[in-house]
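Researcher: Go.
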Amino acid sequence: MTFRMIATAAAAAALFAGAVQAETVLKVANWLPPSHPLVSEVIVPMTEQIGEATGGEVTAEILPAPLGPPPAHYDFAVNGVADITFGVLGYTPGRFKTSNIAEIPFLGDSAEDVSVAYWRVWEAMFKDSGEFDDVKVLAVFTHGPGEIFLKDGDPASVDMLKGTKLRVGGGIVHEVATTLGAVPVEGPSSKAYELLSQGVADGILFPYESVSFFKLIPQLTVGVSVPGGLYNTAFYIVMNKAKFESLTPEQQAEIDSVTGEALARMAGQMWDKADAAGLEAMQGAIDVTPATDEQMTAWSEMLAPVIEAKIAEVSEAGVDGQAAYDMLLKEIEAEAAQ
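Model: Structure:
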């Protein structure tokens, strides 16, 4: 073999090795429409930031079609069906007891404040609970405060929900609705329009964003904004553990730099922006009024046992539920004061 042939072969081998090492592509599962702000303003920017942070060595691509129903997505990350997934922790009831802490009523009026606080509590107290040992957690966060929306009714009545059929999703919202006298109607967000338009449901508990996004405004006339929110919904973004551990320590650190609290904050900011747009879209169609002092006093008393029960469930995960709740409130207050 001539010197030129040896040199050419060596160069080709070097190029091949460089190409192999140059890029790891992460598959990101998605179950929402691409236009949903959680996708367009959180998941898409996250994928871009991962590529930028790693200098293009690790990129992330959102899969073009859902791999399965929303409740299955966490296990897609566990089993490596996808590398990164996101979803609602309450879609698998009883599995993530610590998520109860972020869904409790009356926490705060800003998704950003609650999401950042939730991440800090998760990292300080929940990370070692064992609930998420089978994945790499990239973020936990919540949507904006859940409010009350009805086809009709007296928005100032303490018993405004008594006997009403309310569409609810997963998590604490089912117990909140029941405690306030409503009849919960289970169904995914995508079925909310159908449930309301066909009279299966009389109303819904939703953040402003969701009422607008799922085109429910024509179905509703009454809205009540609850200080601190009547509930929240806890979300996750997770990565296959083996995939994360296959990356270099430098790549892992670079991904950590754009996830965690930074990603939780970005998600919270997205929800706040979307809620503001949703509320604006309701102008002239849904009469949204603040809950009265009488309502808040009554509802706070009625929901106190639910809150206590949820804190107790958090403790079942091996952490101090009351301490976690106290820390969450403290961190929300600190964020709100900025």
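Model: The chain is about 45% helix and 15% strand.
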